[in-house]
Amino acid sequence: MIQTDNPLASVIIVNWNGMKFIEDCLISIEKQTWKNLECILVDNGSSDGSDEYMQAWAKRIPNAQVILLSRNTGFCQANNIGFAKAKGEWIALLNNDAVADPNWIAELIRHGDVANGIGMLGGKILFSEPKGMIDKAGHLIYWDGQNRGRGTMEKDTGQYDREEEILWPDACAALYHRLVLEETKGFDEDFFAYGDDADLGMRARLLGWKAWYVPSAIVHHRHSATAGAYSPLKIMLVERNRLLLAIKNFPMPLLLSNPFWSLRRFIWHLYAALKRQGSATQLVAAEGWGRILLIFARAYISAIRNLPAALRRRGQIQRTRRLSNREVRDLLRRFQIDLRQLTFRD
Question: Does residue 87 contact residue 64 with C-beta atoms inside 8 Å?
């Protein structure tokens, strides 16, 4: 596919009971300076009236459509349904609790370069509250598959104002070339939500695609407004999905060492909790130690149930990847998150 000068961009927004914030999100799409645009809204069986609001909005906006699903299928399947409907050369994802600056899509597309393998792009994602704080500026990864946004919870002082390569973009606000989605076949629907963009990004990297960071493409995000930052479901999915990511994508030597790296991470989380710092402290305060153990048990039981499908997908991924074991390890090392940062920063 040859990249055109004025390509059609498809924006996909998945919604589930987002009446509190969907209006601001859609207004930001109306204000985009990139005009060759279509908008696909996928509703996951909302019951708060946000589905009706989106239908009314789409009737007055050119090239907008709403897909109504009967139940909450999760972030992954809903986006895949949107991918199947999208006609754009470039496909953007935007969370329903995010607000994009007017030049968001234009800046991302301007930096896309399929000829040089840049098929994934992300901008600077800032928290809506508190102001001036970074949510994500790309992603970093730990050796067991756990990943976190680069710069999370840092004050934005310009430290991430340089255009540069990143590991992959955060799907809260990301741009993908159609070829990336065709080659990867989109999100793994077994993930349901959380870690799905890491898995998609990792599979794209294994196929040789690159990701680029565009700091001038700014989005303001109400972080975890839909599920809650420390909801038991979110914690379970994050832990389960990082393991599924490793099973599917990691070279065998790294996969076999996964228990060691996870144990090391858990010890550091415990240390941070004893110091009353980091996400573990917040989780203990919200759920208590006993419930946390049950959440993690559910995560591993669910991972075991998903193991046969993950192993089948691993076979396909490992057969078709274009990076050697050494190149994969070098990639992860280049974008490795510091363990202290992972465990001591909320």
Answer: no
Contact call for residues 23 and 49 (beta carbons, < 8 A): no
Q: What is the set of domains in the chain, with CATH numbers?
A: 9-221 (3.90.550.10), 232-344 (no CATH)
Q: Which amino acid is at 56?
A: A
Confidence at 226, pLDDT banded by 50, 70, 90: low
Query: Residue 63: which region, alpha, beta or left (left: phi > 0; alpha: psi -120 to 50)?
Result: left
Residue range 164-198, pLDDT digits in tens? 999 999 999 999 999 999 999 999 999 999 999 99
Chain-wide mean pLDDT for the chain? 95
Report angle CA 70, 61, 21 to the nearest 5 degrees.
60
d(C-alpha 310, C-alpha 307), whole Å:
5
SS (H, E, C) the chain: CCCCCCCCEEEEEEECCCCCCHHHHHHHHHCCCCCCEEEEEEEECCCCCHHHHHHHHHHHCCCEEEEEECCCCHHHHHHHHHHHHCCCCEEEEECCCEEECCCHHHHHHHHCEHHHCEEEEEEEEEECCCCCEEEECCEEECCCCCEEECCCCCECCCCCCCCEEECCCCCCEEEEEHHHHHHHCCCCHHHCCCCHHHHHHHHHHHCCCEEEEEEEEEEEECCCCCCCCCCHHHHHHHHHHHHHHHHHHCCHHHHHCHHHHHHHHHHHHHHHHHCCCHHHHHHHHHHCHHHHHHHHHHHHHHHHHCHHHHHHHHHHHHHHCCCCHHHHHHHHHHCECCHHHHHHCC
pLDDT in tens, 256-265: 999 999 999 9
Q: How far apart are CA 85 and CA 340, in angstroms?
A: 42
